[in-house]
Design brief:
The chain is α+β, with helices and mostly antiparallel strands and 213 residues long. It contains 7 helices and 7 strands; from the N terminus they run βααααββαβαβαββ. It is globular.
């Protein structure tokens, strides 16, 4: 762990790799035993109500299979793992939008837009997890930026996110902010395309339009 728990984390200390290039032990250290450790990043994956229709053991097995941690030759993985000065510190889920069944029934991605729900070429950023001790230090900004190249290199035509609007001085729980903050995506070059609720926006990069940003 870094000793200064307040200072922003500089980019030169951050290494971000596809989850299949990280170890399972490193990912479980990031998730810990709080809400992230219980959900195992399956909120948008489990059909039905996550706490009723799945078990922790089942969700853990799902995440392990999806990430293919420890298998650098795996054909696919479901996110990125961030290291700070060599220590596992953060996670972001990014996959084709169709990989998240719950997004099909959520009003947030579709409100006010005419979108093809079965378009595999549109990818989505759905969840951040930052390990205790690294929170509030800008790591999600580094992770949001990293999702762009990751998705583009794997054939995405566009990349979306569904972050929350935050306000200076107004407290927000970490659990609420698992989808990320709007400012992190703005800084990475995402543009707002809709504002479906008071606190949520849809942010997007269309790679052809952005000239491969």
């Amino acid at each position: 762990m870094t000793k200064d728990t307040q200072a922003p984390i500089p980019a030169e200390l951050v290494t971000i790799v596809p989850a299949n290039e990280a170890s399972w032990d490193d990912l479980t250290a990031i998730f810990g035993t709080t809400d992230a450790g219980r959900c195992q990043c399956q909120r948008f994956k489990v059909i039905g109500w996550i706490w009723r229709d799945s078990t922790l053991e089942g969700r853990t097995a799902m995440l392990r299979a999806q990430t293919a941690c420890g298998d650098p030759d795996a054909p696919a993985t479901s996110g990125l793992v961030a290291y700070v000065d060599g220590e596992p510190a953060g996670w972001v889920a990014v996959e084709p939008r169709t990989a998240y069944p719950k997004l099909r029934t959520s009003p947030v991605p579709w409100s006010g837009r005419d979108e093809e729900k079965d378009d595999d070429d549109v990818w989505a950023v759905t969840c951040f997890v930052v390990r205790k001790g690294y929170r509030g230090r800008g790591l999600t900004y580094h992770l949001a930026q990293a999702t762009i190249g990751f998705a583009r290199e794997r054939g995405a035509r566009a990349l979306e996110a569904y972050p929350m609007i935050t306000h200076p001085g107004k407290e927000i729980t970490w659990g609420e902010l698992h989808v990320g903050a709007r400012q992190a995506f703005e800084d990475a070059g995402f543009k707002e395309v809709s504002h479906p609720t008071v606190r949520r926006v849809v942010m997007r990069i269309d790679f052809a339009q952005e000239g491969g940003v």
